[in-house]
Amino acid sequence: MAIKLFNSQTSMFCEKVRMVFALKKVPYEVIDVRADERKSLLEYTNQRKVPTLNYNGECVIDSTVISARLEKDYPQNSIYPDGAANKGLCLALEDWSDEVLIHANHAMRRADNPEAKQKAQAEWDSHFKTLDQMYAGKKFIFDKLTLADISIFSQLHYLYTAVKYDVPAEYKNVHAFLDNLRRTLKLNSLADSFDAPSL
Ligand SMILES: N[C@@H](CCC(=O)N[C@@H](CS)C(=O)NCC(=O)O)C(=O)O
């Protein structure tokens, strides 16, 4: 048995999970769902969402559930900060990124007229302000790379690569964070997607 990831290279949630696998140095096989238009995913799970794992025969769906499961079974290089209070904060930030930043990404991607574009920009602006404060004087939110940074990076990275929207220059701390993560993930360019087997 092996761990198989039903993956779409352009999905931000798949990139998030690929980062968790790499941080923990857990080997896995990739099944590209775009190769057969999700036929094998639908056959296996009866649903269309990625990331999905065939986890040694067990079906595990959703990046948050997958990350928590990998942490439980492979506790090395923890994706959470130390201490219950910080872990709770980390999980809340993961959820904020997965549920709120994704909304801003979808809004920007779907904006097909000047009014919608302006609205999406205003939505992102308020998040950039928050993020710029969160990363003021810090490489990571906690004292090391955690799932909070990974989740936030995956949304900002999608904004840059798929939506093709540059973070405005005034958000210096957000830029510094993106560059720090680019180096941490050993990406030559922010335009590359992350798929290294280990970090
Ligand atoms: N909350 C889920 C979101 C997963 C998700 O939205 N996946 C998208 C790709 S980024 C997908 O597969 N959408 C296809 C569909 O819904 O048909 C997670 O964290 O994994």
Fill in the keyword field for this structure:
199 residues, alpha+beta, binds glutathione
The percent range for helix content is 40-55%
| Poorly predicted regions | none
Average pLDDT taken over every residue: 97
Secondary-structure element string: EHEHEEHHHHH
Strand content: 5-15%
> Judging from the principal axes of the Cα atoms, what is the shape?
globular
Helix/strand/pairing class, anyone? Answer: alpha+beta
The largest β sheet comes out as:
4 strands, mixed
What is the CA–CA distance across the termini? 24 Å
Named once each, the bound ligands are:
glutathione
Number of strands: 4
Number of helices: 7
Q: Radius of gyration, Cα only, in angstroms?
A: 17 Å
Query: Order of strands across the widest beta sheet?
Result: 2-1-3-4
Topology:
Layout: E1 3-7, H1 12-24, E2 29-32, H2 39-45, E3 52-55, E4 58-61, H3 63-73, H4 84-110, H5 114-134, H6 147-161, H7 172-184
Parallel strand pairs: 1-2
Antiparallel strand pairs: 1-3, 3-4
Helix pairs in contact: 1-3, 1-6, 4-5, 4-6
The structure holds glutathione.
Glutathione binds at residues 11-13, 48-51, 62-64, 98.
